[in-house]
Amino acid sequence: MHSRIFVLIACVAILSITYRIHAEPLPTAAPEDVGMSSEKLAKIGEVMRLRVTYGQLVGGSVLVSRRGKVVYFEPFGLMDAEADKPWQADTIARIYSMTKGITTAAALMLVDEGKLALDDPVEKYLPELADRTVYDPTGNRPAKSPMTIRQLMTHTSGLVYGNAEGTPVERLFAETNPLDYEGTLQDLIDKLAGLPLAFDPGTDWHYGLSTDVLGAVVERVSGKTLAEFFQERIFEPLQMVDTGFQVPQEKLDRFAVCYEQKDGKWIVEDDPATSRYSRPATFLSGGGGLVSTAADYWRFFNMIAVGGEAEGKRVLKPETVALMSHNQLDDKSGWVADPGSGFGLGFRVVCEPIPADDRQLLGEYGWGGRASTQYWSNPREEFTVVTLEQTLPYRDSTFVVVNPLVYEAIVDAE
């Protein structure tokens, strides 16, 4: 009985989501109409509420769709624990590295238009990054080849993030601080021009500043700022009305607090009232600068999941979307500890069934963000999931809990 009530509540929430900012309601369906079980989907809510009760997260939301229809969308817990403010369906969250998928799609739109090619050298568009060197403790040496656009999308460019306790190259990046949110995207490029790569482009995988550089390429090629390009080419066509590099003053009441777990307690890491997101952004980070809602991000990711279309309009070519969601790496197990995983253009891709969970089938793809936000899709089973929360450090525990429950809710073969 309780599970039916919670699914009913979730469905009512779905049907009432028109937002205060003029987005069309999300396309919805009864779970049974697309081969899923309402009762089994309700287990997601039961588990998530228990996690909130036991202090495993402060609040968040889970959205599940199948065949382009939202079948489950429910918020849990609090967006502001100090104010006892519930997480809502339209709560705005920092999506950090979930920005990377949007930046990659923006660049691929330019590829589709013939203005950019995947194997073009980056220096063709950003001459400041010509003549790259590779770090060597005995003296930096010239890179064997230039970075390419494809390598930016797959994190095989040799660019890294700064880490004061990391490798020598990561320490150099940390000292130079190219990812300065008080600076500009041009400042990033100018600083990178004086730093060595961690390895020759195309010879290894390392998560880092590649997608921020890709954002600079989008700006140079399009002649627009990244904010302008996103707004005109992605956000407006897809009705992503709450996504951007800043939270406007009139929406700050919907902007969640970001928490960090220390000594078993949740500490405020970023308060909306003083957050950099409450001010106009000077550094437009294509690697991690956006805020969004679950519904907005679903509109973007569902466009990818259904082959590049939204609202009857072609956004990306089908063959381009296929490249995004298929492994692009020669060594499909060498980039992370997960056996069977690879990387497409902007996403992690399952290349083989994961031994620890054989329900993660070939082709499942997705990624996440620093504050434990996540999204993933399985093209064979035709489902897409977006989960939001605002908790540091990053953990994938919501994915680990929710993904098996989504598979269990698929009943069309029964």
Automatic annotation (TrEMBL):
rRNA-binding listed as a keyword: no
Superkingdom field: Bacteria
EC numbers, comma separated: 3.1.1.-
First-level EC class: hydrolase
Gene3D superfamilies: DD-peptidase/beta-lactamase superfamily (3.40.710.10)
Record has Hydrolase as a keyword: yes
Alphabetized UniProt keyword annotations: Hydrolase
UniProt xrefs under InterPro entries: Beta-lactam-related, Beta-lactam/transpept-like, Diverse_Enzym_Activities
GO MF, one example: hydrolase activity
PANTHER family, alphabetized: BETA-LACTAMASE FAMILY PROTEIN (AFU_ORTHOLOGUE AFUA_5G07500), BETA-LACTAMASE-RELATED
Name this polypeptide is given: Esterase EstB
Designated gene of the protein: estB_1
